[in-house]
Amino acid sequence: MTPTGRQRRETVRMQAAELFEQKIKPSEVARRLRVSVKSAYQWHQLWRDGGVQALASRGPSGSRCRLSPRCLEKLAVYLEEGPAAHGWVEDQVWTASRVATLIGRKFHITYSVSGATRLMHRLGFSPQVPARRVAERDEQAVTVWREATWAEVKGPGRPAGATSASRTKPASPDGRPGDGPGAGAASPRS
User: Fold this and answer.
1) Alpha carbon distances (Å) from 102 to 71, 122, 161, 175
2) pLDDT tier at 6, thresholds 50, 70, 90
3) Contact assessment for residue 171 and residue 163, using Cβ atoms and an 8 Å cutoff
4) Which of 53, 72, 157, 174 has the most CB atoms at less than 10 Å from its CB?
5) How far apart are the C-alpha atoms of 95 and 113, rounded to whole Å?
6) Interhelix angle for 5-21 vs 37-50, to 10°?
7) DSSP category for residue 53
8) What is the pLDDT at residue 43?
9) Model confidence pTM above 0.85
């Protein structure tokens, strides 16, 4: 099992505490542990004020989950059942918006779309974006239209050499002018 980002950060803070105990300066700790000097000085201050315990993790940051562990288990079961089982029959896609609606319906708790996305990731699901295609789409008719009608409507476009990369100055016909000021100052590269 690989450590999480939080576990890695705590490990680095504990290594920093060991180095501080050896009287190593924060700037050297930052270099050795490949962290910012600012972080090393903040950790040093915490370590001086409260010892190693002051550098220990205080758990996850952010707001706590508003669903109980039991409700999270139920939500995972609902998601496994699929969207059709909960009224979305047009496609088999769990969007974050649908999950937020499902949470509101089943648990009477309001979640934002971004909050529902984070919750889905926590449960091992990922929100999907439904394909915006008509179920009755005729692929052959689309191909014929692209090849015949679109080519006719689109037009030929601009010739490749007639454009300039500069927004302010049109391209000169021969590239660089040869007789302007500073024309002989640099020799051309070969």
Assistant:
1) 12, 16, 57, 63
2) confident
3) yes
4) 72
5) 9
6) 70
7) G
8) 92
9) no
